[in-house]
Amino acid sequence: MTNTSKQLQIYECYFKLYDGSTDLNNIFDQQQYIAIKCVHELKKLGYNSSLEKFKQSDKIDILKIIWQSNANNPHALQLLANICLGFDIHVDKIWNGILKRMVKSSMHRDLNALVDVLSCYAHLLHIEGLTKAWEWILLQPFKNANQTQSAEQEDKLHKTLFRLQSCPVVHSLNLLEFAEHCLRLGKHHMAAVLMAFCKTPEQRQSIKQLIPQRNETMRQKILELEDVGILSAILNFVLKELCL
Fold first, then answer.
1. Would you tell me how many other CB atoms lie within 10 Å of the CB of residue 11?
2. What DSSP character marks residue 19?
3. Residue 219: φ, ψ to 5°
């Protein structure tokens, strides 16, 4: 076992035992931990590196080297993201590439965490990679759902709809695809809610045309979505659009 591996084990062992009673920053250098973890992952990918060499190196140069030979490797993509986050690298071109490749590799856990973190940086909200990442994450529960009703599936769909409501790039998503999945599942009321997130009247109309069911039952189902966190202003807008 290398010295770096031993150091990493010590840190991670402490994390498991940490009870939250003290401030982590007062106990150890988090930057040191990040560096150790990155060096450990670099070695696993076949790069000959040391802690001191890593600390002294330009992190952008390291990113370029990894990208050139391992851009399609999920482990390398995780490392690229960790280096960027750990050393405050928020270059839009770099993140755009990482996120697109992560979507291509279906890296659900990583993307699920990254979309929220990266959405805090206003200059990253315009990149295609972040939009693709949000869309991929939010579409999965609808794509994976089936017409067999279950409380667990219903809960997942409700949570996803709630998250969609607060997605910072919701107007850039392919909402028609979301609506089509809702209709496939018989969730016409959920499809209707998507109209509130449309960027243009044309997009709204394209979803509206897919919803044939407009009755009191539909109205009640839409109103009940307030119980799972959908804003009443959104629901009232949808009801008005459907003349319910």
1. 16
2. -
3. -60, -45
Biggest CA-to-CA distance, the chain: 69
* pTM for the structure as a whole: 0.87
Q: What are phi and psi of 230, to 5 degrees?
A: -75, 130
Q: Burial level of 105, CB count in 10 A (0-12/13-18/19+)? A: middle
**SS3 of 89-124:** CCCHHHHHHHHHHHHHCCCHHHHHHHHHHHCCCHHH
What span, in angstroms and rounded, lies between the C-alpha atoms of 46 and 176?
44
- Residue 29's pLDDT is what? 59
Residue whose tokens read 């994390």: 15
What is the spatial distance between Cα 173 and Cα 181, in angstroms, rounded to a whole number? 14
Q: Say how far apart CA 136 and CA 233 lie, in whole Å.
A: 26
CA-nearest of 86, 79, 155 to 117 is 86
Residue pLDDT, tens place only, 217-233:
999 999 999 999 999 99
**175 CB-contact burial (10 Å; exposed 0-12 / middle 13-18 / buried 19+):** buried
